[in-house]
Amino acid sequence: xxxxxxxxxxxxxxxxxxxxxxxxxxxxxxxxxxxxxxxxxxxxxxxxxxxxxxxxxxxxxxxxxxxxxxxxxxxxxxxxxxxxxxxxxxxxxxxxxxxxxxxxxxxxxxxxxxxxxxxxxxxxxxxxxxxxxxxxxxxxxxxxxxxxxxxxxxxxxxxxxxxxxxxxxxxxxxxxxxxxxxxxxxxxxxxxxxxxxxxxxxxxxxxxxxxxxxxxxxxxxxxxxxxxxxxxxxxxxxxxxxxxxxxxxxxxxxxxxxxxxxxxxxxxxxxxxxxxxxxxxxxxxxxxxxxxxxxxxxxxxxxxxxxxxxxxxxxxxxxxxxxxxxxxxxxxxxxxxxxxxxxxxxxxxxxxxxxxxxxxxxxxxxxxxxxxxxxxxxxxxxxxxxxxxxxxxxxxxxxxxxxxxxxxxxxxxxxxxxxxxxxxxxxxxxxxxxxxxxxxxxxxxx
Length: 446
Hints:
Helices cover 55% and strands 4% of the residues. It is mainly α. It has one domain: Glycosyltransferase, CATH 1.50.10.10.
């Protein structure tokens, strides 16, 4: 496996084959550096490496052709109105079990979860960041389905993550085995797994490791509340690091230590200053890359969940304003664009399935908080859209996987099934199951 950057696997450190995209791991992650890479040389190298993957694994040729053909047909014949998702064609529990099955199959021998399965090169190495926030999803499913195997995988993954922690308390970026520097974002996402592992097992050692990560995040935070410099992607501050603040807010509750809440609130205040009246969020800072829906949803979800945990009504209002803008676009156009330009004025016409699943999580949580049925309606329809795009058959690495893009050659993570997409879809489907059950029970009791 080639080198990885210490930004998130789905940060724009991946270049794609020429002409398809600027973002997504086609072959590998690029090491973070203060010197800008040569984009054309990077693209050419990745094209050659990915193409060589088919030579090493010729059995992947048929699944690749099948995926390209099926997406082309679906584009030609899919329904063009939102009412197409008003009825359930794929049972939610069936889709959920299939997606969790993909995550189980993506477990690597070291106990981590692969970043992706490529139709060209197969599985990647374990990815610590994504493994970190998949741990809570596995525990949630273990409770939902009384599934001890998911719990066992979560516990093994947590033990593996602990073994990667640096003396400073930070966690490295990149795929496992890379000589990466400490990463703010990766440390934050792994923190989710450590905090949940402590809550589930009562293992004080996990809480100690989580506290060390939280202490490091507090130490390297800027005076303005942002994280920048050598430990941040491309050295810039990012509003989607709201996901780090959410993890710190969870740590504050689990450790009963308000220091971590204060660190989270400083970052939250900095982020809220970047929310615009239009609902747009400045400061995502993907540099030369498009602002993918995945990162917009990151920013919204992190702010929303921080607002709930820290009892910040201003944060909940800001998140709901941005979420409402995207809800109306979904209602009007039957889809969300895969990437947007400022003020949501226009964007790239493909589907970022991970971003869709994240927005479903946001809308369903807003229904949970506000009881506004419009959010529930949008979340259910979005889940139906994504469920219908899950492969129901195919080889290991394909069946039950969430593709980076629809169609498969779209700009985000082309020709790959990605583990974080599966994580967010599983979260959305479990939210759907809980909220629909509660809503129906309340309706019957009224």
